[in-house]
Amino acid sequence: MAKERVIVGVDVGTTKICALIGEVDQDNRLNIVGVGMAPSQGLRRGMVVNIDEAAAAIREALDKTERISGYKIGTALVGIAGSHISSQNSRGIVAVSPNMHEISQPDIERAIEAARAQPLPHNREVLHVIPREYVVDGEAGIHDPLGMSGNRLEVETHIVTGAVTSIHNLIKCVEKTGIEIDDIVLEPLASSEAVLTGAERDLGVAMIDIGGGTTDLAIFINGSIWHTAVIGIGGNHLTNDIAVGLRTPFNVAEDMKKKYGSAVAERIDVNEMIKIPTFDNSTGEPISRRFLCEIIEARMREMLVLVHEEIRGAGYQGVLPAGVVLTGGSSQLSELVDLARDVLNMPARIGGPAQLTGLVDSINSPAYSTAVGLLSWGLKNGDYQNPRSPVPAGGGTGPSWGDVVGRFTSWLKHFWASA
Ligand SMILES: Nc1ncnc2c1ncn2[C@@H]1O[C@H](COP(=O)(O)OP(=O)(O)OP(=O)(O)O)[C@@H](O)[C@H]1O
Ligand SMILES: [Mg+2]
After folding, report:
1. Which ranges constitute the DSSP H helices of 314-406?
2. Which ligand is closest to the CA of 43, given by its number?
3. How many Å lie between the centroid of ligand 1 and the Cα of residue 254?
4. What is the pLDDT of residues 169-200, one digit of tens each?
């Protein structure tokens, strides 16, 4: 009997690590069979700043997932973010091999390679080269040119690059946990897999994942990715502002934000008072809830203005009829949709991981969009899959490793060779 395909995703977030295992059934649907979380350590603004601490937190999440699922994890898809990420669109053009004027897989690969051949500073590395569409003899809008007749093949690609040191640190700390990496996936691309509908991508949409340390952006038009960005500011900054403004510890400020926060302060009654424990007064001091929400609104407005500038600067204002889809833990802030509509001047909705089956209760929230999206990414890009892993604990051997050459493995070899 054919072995079930299994995919592992690890979201290394600024506030939490989430490791998921999904089994793929015969209809190519994911069933989540393992969920493991751990509070993050050693991360700042989406980047690893302490390898040992981050590795320990990742290991803790992996251990929990292994215990729940009964699988032993050997490899995983891992998310990457941080403000070192940048992206650009690039075109590659090649002549189709002259034998039959029929486009072959090597022709497609040569075109993608031509698009990728951009000069890069020595301290940056390519993370993704994603074909967006193909043009055959001037005919645009082709998604799969394989087998078509033509003389000239062009490909439009989206290229994502990151700082070598940040990528290197993430690889190091994941490998320290004893697992290998199937592929590194840009977090906004993963989150988009989990929350956007096909119709939204076709129309034109911006996915905004507001986490603890970063705000991630991905723009889709005509079904393809056009722009990605990571802004190094997130929900932790809201909590910091509250802690400073109300002179209260970070954890108290965090509770206040979740319990009483709103992104539209003027909707809160000016006379409503709430009690908060401060550093020097553990019994609680009454403060105006409106004041708390004014602090929150000011920072959230600033974050959304930065996102708006990124969208406008990249030239996509006015071409996103499906508006924005907000996700990430901070998208749970009350009234955020209304503030987003106001600042971005577009339709807005909150999105969480959709159409989940299996152990879904604990991950059915916008905070888990990236982790779920990593599994969806692995499902779509099947050649990342390494069937050696995970194997059922205490037995199965799985298919041999030798015939599986993951894209990441070759990328990694190139990376180490050039490091
Ligand atoms: N109900 C809520 N209202 C407001 N903020 C919330 C709420 N619930 C969670 N958050 C915030 O969500 C943030 C964590 O989000 P998330 O889990 O998506 O981050 P992360 O993935 O760990 O970090 P990042 O993606 O930035 O590296 C925290 O700042 C937390 O305060
Ligand atoms: Mg996140």
Report:
1. 336-344, 369-380
2. 1
3. 10
4. 999 999 999 999 999 999 999 999 999 999 99
Supply the DSSP string of 13-60, one letter for each residue.
Answer: -SSEEEEEEEEE-TTS-EEEEEEEEEE--SEETTEES-HHHHHHHHHH
Helix (H), strand (E) at residue 113: helix 105-116
- Name the residues around ion ligand 2, CB cutoff 5 A: 13, 211, 370
Go through the domains of the chain in sequence order and give each one's CATH number.
Answer: 86-162 (3.30.1490.110), 198-351 (3.30.420.40)
Give the per-residue pLDDT at 391.
Answer: 54
Where does residue 387 rank: exposed (0-12), middle (13-18), buried (19+ CB within 10 A)?
middle
pLDDT of residue 281: 61
Whether the Cβ atoms of residue 277 and residue 311 lie closer than 8 Å to each other: no
Question: What pLDDT does 72 receive?
Answer: 95
Q: Report the separation in Å between the CA atom of 204 and the middle of ligand 1, taken as the mean of its atom positions.
A: 26
Ligand 1 atom closest to 369 (CA): 18
Residue ID of nearest Cα to ligand 1 atom 25: 211
